[in-house]
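Lecture notes, unit on protein representations.

Consider one protein chain, 175 amino acids long.
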Amino acid sequence: MENINENIINEEIVGEIKTETIDFKTSKEIDKIFPALVNFHKNIESIKMTATNPFFSSKYASLPDILSNVNPILAENDLFIMQIPTNANDEEMKVHTRIIHSSGQYVKADTVSLRKAKDAQQVVAFSTYMRRAAISSLLALCFDTDDDGNSISEKGDVSSPSTESPTSSRPRHRR
């Protein structure tokens, strides 16, 4: 049985892909998964953005970069990620994301693309993008550059974004 603790709507617009993370839910019991997620956060570092988007001349963390950083630390805490892309309806794609604890407890959210893929390449591109967005949101990941929203602001100055994140100078704590 699911316990709806909170509904989250996290809109992100990049190019022509718009996604919303909706329907955040947890298992009925959360006494094992939440401490494991807290411990995950004690050990995760800021993730480097090593991939380049040639259309926007910007950097981002690729799905392999994100997974190679989070999967070992999730495993240390008896956690893993399961993601399944599906068609939401005739107009949208959906990626179901669950973070599951070895006890069976979980948190989950669905990420919906508000644009339907036209071919197999777009299906893969959209699902990869949505998987990155969902993992980043559910795990509250931090990336190595934060321009304080300037890149999407009409008045913002993007010439010198901050390269310091709240956790980038924090040492990794291992037990």
